[in-house]
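Intended use. Records like the one below are meant for learning the mapping from a protein sequence to its folded structure. Do not use them to infer anything beyond what is encoded.
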Amino acid sequence: MARKLGDPKKDSEKFDAISPLRHAGAIRAATFIAYGEYDVSSNIRDAKDLISTVRRNSVPAEIESFINEADGVHHLARKVALYSDIEAFLAKNLPPAI
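Structure written out for the chain above:
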């Protein structure tokens, strides 16, 4: 990703400009975020802040956390739960197929 996007330490203005959190007030699409309880605490805080902002604008938003996970969901049972929840979220929030 660093080759594609660049170094956030060297180009902080670019990363600030594309940050979803900085533009959360403009999000109009239903939003689903999942994280592990051992993810970096600042990332968890940012996810919660983003979801709060999206909800304040009456946009459907859900957040899900997983116990004993970090940097993704690795345990099979939790992966199944995550993908089931994503599927239900999409079924609820996508327009019907034409």
